[in-house]
Design brief:
The protein is of the alpha+beta class. About 25% of the residues lie in helices and about 35% in strands. The protein has one domain: hypothetical protein PF0899 fold.
Length: about 110
């Protein structure tokens, strides 16, 4: 389950950024996760709750903003929406689509107390 290592990395990013501000605790963490990122949001929530116990982010609310996927169809030379990396082009049926958006995952922001 790669979500566990992602949750540990998120915690490190948040703690490293919160420490210089002498934060007593992190109350909210907001992530941006692309639809094509291969990250399972519910599994990530579970792992985040587990890795944050006893940390600055213990009990923090995890908010996930999901971004849509999109790609460039090499066959018909058009920008198309994608729900999965294995989708066919909705315009021509080709599977030669290069993902361009929706593959990212990032810590958007967080709130401290």
């Amino acid at each position: 389950m790669h979500e566990m290592s992602l949750a540990m990395s998120i915690l490190k990013i948040v703690e490293d950024a919160a420490r210089p501000h002498q934060a007593a605790r992190v109350t909210t963490v907001r992530l941006e996760i692309g639809a094509l990122s291969a990250v399972e949001p519910e599994a990530l929530r579970f792992c985040f709750d587990a890795v944050t116990r006893g940390s600055l982010a213990d009990g923090a609310q995890l908010q996930i903003d999901q971004t849509p996927g999109g790609g460039w169809c090499l066959a018909c030379s058009r920008q198309v929406a994608m729900a999965a990396l294995t989708d066919a082009c909705p315009l021509c049926g080709s599977y030669q689509i290069q993902a361009q958006t929706g593959t990212e995952m990032r810590v958007k922001d967080f709130e401290i107390a």
